[in-house]
Design a protein that fits this description.
With about 350 residues, the protein is an alpha/beta fold. The protein is about 40% helix and about 20% strand. It folds into two domains: about 140 residues, Response regulator (Rossmann fold, 3-Layer(aba) Sandwich), CATH 3.40.50; about 180 residues, Rossmann fold, CATH 3.40.50.180. It is built from twelve helices and 14 strands. The strands form three sheets. A seven-stranded parallel beta sheet has the order 8-9-7-6-12-13-14, with helices on both faces. Strands 2-1-3-4-5 form a five-stranded parallel beta sheet, sandwiched between helices. α3 packs parallel to α4 and α4 packs across α8. The radius of gyration is 21 Å and the shape is globular.
Length: about 350
C-alpha cells in the first residue's frame, strides 16, 4: 500500500479511545481516521470513512459492538479487531464476534494498564499491519484473476496436490493463531478421526475454555480444554489452556497424560505450538501429523522441523484461505509441507489419513 492505514476507533470510554489513539499514532504507517462512541456512530462512520481497520468495543450504550458488527459486515465490510474483556462473558462474546466476521481481538485489560505495555503496543500494530497487508494482497490476486480470465491460469509455486500416507497416523497436532477460532469451527466439527488431536490456539485465559465448549457443542468428537494429568484418549480433541503450556508425557504406569504448566516468562506464546509439538513428537514419533494453519509469525516452525527430521509429515493451510498467511508460510518457505491445502479440504484430508 502506498498510503497510511486508516483506523476507526470505537469505544464508549474516552480513556480507551485516547489510549488506543496514542498507541497507534506512534506508528508512521497508521493514521486515526476518526472515533465513535457507540455502535450507531460506528456504522455511520464505517460507511462514510471506509476505514481499513476498525477497533470495536463490545459493551457500549445505544448499540453494542456485536449488533454494530453484524451491520458493518453487511453494509461496509472491513477488517474488525474486537476489544474484549478478559472474562468468561467477554470470551463468549468475542467468539460470537469472530463468527460474525471479526478477524481478531485484543484483550482490554492487557491493552493499556500493563507491565508489558511495549510488547502489547508492538503486537497490536503488527496485527493491524499484517491483517491489512493480507487483505490487500488477496484483493490484488482477485483482480489479477479477473484480468486473466480465459487466459493461462496463475501458477502457484506450492505443492497443493501432495499426498499423505493412509493408516499411518496415531495423533494429530494442530498449531493455529489469527483467524483460528472460525477456521477451527469449519474443521473440528467435521472430524471423525479415531486418534487424539492436540491443538494450540493462541488465546488468553478463559478464551480457550469458551472455544472448546463451543467446538464441543458442534462436534462428533469430544472437544475440551486440556487439564493437567488427564489421560489422553483417542477421539478426543485437547485445546491447550490460554496463558499456559501443554505437553504430552508418560506417567509412571506408562500411560500418556497431558501436562499443563507455566513456562519461562521469556517465551512469547502461551500456549506455544513449538512446545506442544516437540512433546507430541517425542511421544508419538513419526505417527504424528503436524498441521499448521492460519496465524501470524512462525510458531510451530521448530516443532515441524523436529517432526520432519524424524521422517514425519506436515499439512499446511494455503495462502488463499488463511486470514493471515504467516505460520503456514514459514512452513512452506522452509519446504517442510508435504501437502498445502485450502481450509475446506483439511477435514477431508484428516479423516482419510487418521
Amino acid at each position: 500500500m502506498n498510503r497510511k492505514i486508516k483506523v476507526l476507533i470505537v469505544d464508549d470510554s474516552a480513556f480507551m479511545r485516547k489510549s488506543l489513539s496514542i498507541i497507534l499514532s506512534a506508528d508512521s504507517e497508521i493514521e486515526i481516521a476518526d472515533f465513535a462512541k457507540d455502535g450507531i456512530e460506528a456504522i455511520e462512520k464505517a460507511k462514510s470513512i471506509r476505514p481499513d481497520v476498525i477497533t470495536l468495543d463490545i459493551e457500549m450504550p445505544r448499540m453494542d459492538g456485536l449488533t454494530a458488527l453484524r451491520t458493518i459486515m453487511k453494509e461496509a465490510p472491513t477488517s474488525v479487531i474486537m476489544v474484549s474483556s478478559l472474562t468468561t462473558e467477554g470470551a463468549e462474546a468475542t467468539l460470537q464476534a469472530l463468527e460474525l466476521g471479526a478477524v481478531d481481538f485484543i484483550p482490554k485489560e492487557m491493552s493499556f494498564v500493563s507491565v508489558n505495555m511495549g510488547q502489547v503496543k508492538k503486537d497490536l500494530i503488527r496485527k493491524i499491519k499484517t491483517i491489512v497487508r493480507q487483505k490487500f494482497l488477496k484483493e490484488r490476486l482477485e483482480n489479477l484473476k479477473t484480468e486473466i480470465n480465459g487466459k493461462e491460469s496463475r501458477k502457484v509455486p506450492i505443492p497443493t496436490n501432495g499426498q499423505l500416507p493412509k493408516n499411518k497416523f496415531n495423533s494429530i497436532a494442530i498449531g493455529i493463531s489469527t483467524g483460528g477460532p472460525l477456521s477451527l469451527q469449519k474443521v473440528i466439527p467435521q472430524l471423525t478421526v479415531k486418534v487424539p488431536v492436540f491443538i494450540v490456539q493462541h488465546m488468553p485465559p478463559k478464551f480457550t475454555k469458551s472455544l472448546a465448549n463451543r467446538l464441543n457443542s458442534l462436534s462428533k468428537l469430544t472437544v475440551k480444554e486440556a487439564e493437567d494429568s488427564e489421560e489422553v484418549r483417542s477421539g478426543f480433541v485437547y485445546i491447550a489452556p490460554g496463558g499456559m503450556q501443554m505437553n504430552v508425557k508418560k506417567n509412571l504406569a506408562g500411560k500418556r497424560i497431558i501436562k499443563v504448566f507455566e513456562s519461562d516468562k521469556n517465551i512469547l506464546h502461551k500456549p506455544s505450538v513449538d512446545i506442544m509439538l516437540s512433546s507430541v513428537v517425542d511421544e508419538y514419533g513419526t505417527g504424528v501429523l503436524g498441521v499448521i494453519m492460519t496465524g501470524m509469525g512462525h510458531d510451530g516452525l521448530e516443532g515441524i522441523k523436529k517432526l520432519k527430521s524424524k521422517g514425519g509429515y506436515c499439512l499446511a493451510q494455503d495462502e488463499s484461505s488463511s486470514v493471515v498467511y504467516g505460520m503456514p508460510k514459514a512452513i512452506v518457505d522452509n519446504q517442510l509441507a508435504d501437502v498445502v491445502a485450502p481450509l475446506d479440504r483439511i477435514p477431508k484430508i484428516l479423516n482419510e489419513v487418521a
